[in-house]
Amino acid sequence: MKKIGLLALLFTIISNAKVIAQHRDNLEYTSAIGVRFYPGAITYKQKIINDNVIEGIAYFWKGTRITGLYEHYYSIIGMDGLHWFVGPGIHMSFYDNQNFSGRSYFGLDGILGLDYKLKNAPLNISIDWQPSFDFGGENGSGFNGGFGGLGIRYVIW
Predict the structure, then answer these.
(1) Under 8 Å between Cβ of 106 and 91
(2) Kindly report the CA angle at 17 between 74 and 86, in degrees rounded to 5?
(3) DSSP reduced 3-state for 13
(4) Bridge partners for 124 per DSSP
(5) What's the CA gap between 99 and 45, in Å, rounded?
(6) Integer distance in angstroms from the first to the last C-alpha of the chain?
(7) Are 94 and 129 in contact (CB under 8 A)?
(8) What are phi and psi of 129, to 5 degrees?
């Protein structure tokens, strides 16, 4: 019964999202580079086709994690410069410390967030959640909902 209720709620949210969001080619920037907070990372976004963006993220927290994402951007009607986005991705992680003792992982990612381009400044701000599923190693497989955070980027083009 809980599954039916959850599916009904999800269907309601998705069907109403089309009312407040439109998929248009109006992303206000082409590429941006910057930092993400929690955990610390370097990020680069590049618009490719319409409002589709590829994003590369290099995390440096208890090791290194390299993530590639393919994001779909949607305008929010009446909110110039503000978009919501969603998309899939992959990652590879390398750890060499006391807690993770030389383990390497790969996995699948998802991302859901908000993106805002300041109107009169070459600055982009985003906030997102990036759940993932890791494969590999002893006790290393499973869901990880701890990635995501605040991104601040300089708009190059």
Answers:
(1) yes
(2) 45
(3) helix
(4) 117, 153
(5) 31
(6) 50
(7) no
(8) -125, 135
Tokens of 70: 């393919």
CATH architecture of 21-155: Beta Barrel (2.40)
Model confidence over 64-97: pLDDT tens digits? Answer: 889 999 999 999 988 888 999 999 999 998 877 6
Note the pLDDT tens digit of each residue in 103-124: 778 999 999 999 999 988 999 9
Is residue 127 within 8 Å of residue 86, measured between CB atoms?
no
- Which is nearest to 146 in space by CA: 83, 97, 93? 93
List the one residue out of 19, 92, 84 whose CA is nearest residue 51: 84
Domain ranges of the chain: 21-155
CA distance 62 to 28: 35
pTM: 0.77
